[in-house]
Amino acid sequence: MPVLSAGILLYRRPGPADLEVWIAHMGGPFWARKDAHAWSIPKGEYGEVEDPLAAALREFAEEMGTPAPAADYRELGRFRQPSGKVITVFAAEQDFQPERIESNTFPLEWPRGSGRIQHYPEIDDARWFPEEEARLKLVKGQLPVLDALVDHVICRP
Question: At a CB cut-off of 8 Å and minimum separation 6, what does 119 contact?
């Protein structure tokens, strides 16, 4: 059974031909000096009996430090990542503008082998990016999520 994850992809249309997405830079020492392909949709793991949308909303709140906006979330699909993890992604059109980002943290021995446990934020930045720029920032395994969003937005009634 693959590891299950669920996430929220917010988008907005600042102009008729424009599309922006809300994505987050992954925290911790591995990602600290990386920008290209070091961003992700806000997401997290859940168990088989949990509702994926409920998990996605919970994880968004944990990573942003504020609840996801009230919206009509639509499932974009399930996307298998290179690691084998399967992410269920929900999208909504919202102009999310939090006052600040305050992510939950995770423990990590750093430097490795030092015996010193430090706590790092799961995400250390989050903001809006135009679709084309987001393609350069998202981890490569999540680019199909962006493709699905573009298809969803273009095919909307």
Answer: 105, 106, 107, 108
